[in-house]
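debug: dumping io for the single-chain case to check the tokenizer round-trip. Nothing else runs in this session.
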Amino acid sequence: VQLAESGGGSVQAGGSLKLSCAVSGRLFAIAAMGWYRQAPGKERDLVARFTRDGTTIYADSVKGRFTISKDNGWNTMYLQMNNLKPEDTAVYYCNALETNNDYWGQGTQVTVSS
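debug: decoded output
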């Protein structure tokens, strides 16, 4: 299984970007799928995530601005980011968690200038 992110870039504060995550291969017994981000010198943090039971979780810092979505399966996932702020600058990673496996994409850079 491989995950590939796309859609990152540089925008000014208040702008929007939409990230995509394409899954190659088949996921089995998936527990969750979501987006994480890591800013320079900081830990990787959860941004938004789907769980298999239908729960959607957002970090408090992005609620009301970011929207996670996916196709009917677990093949493609998106992150619509609106009203971007300089503090959203980070490398964004796609993650798929199975019962016994944890998959990560290579990351895509998002840079927000003030």
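debug: round-trip ok. DSSP finds no helices and eleven strands in the chain.
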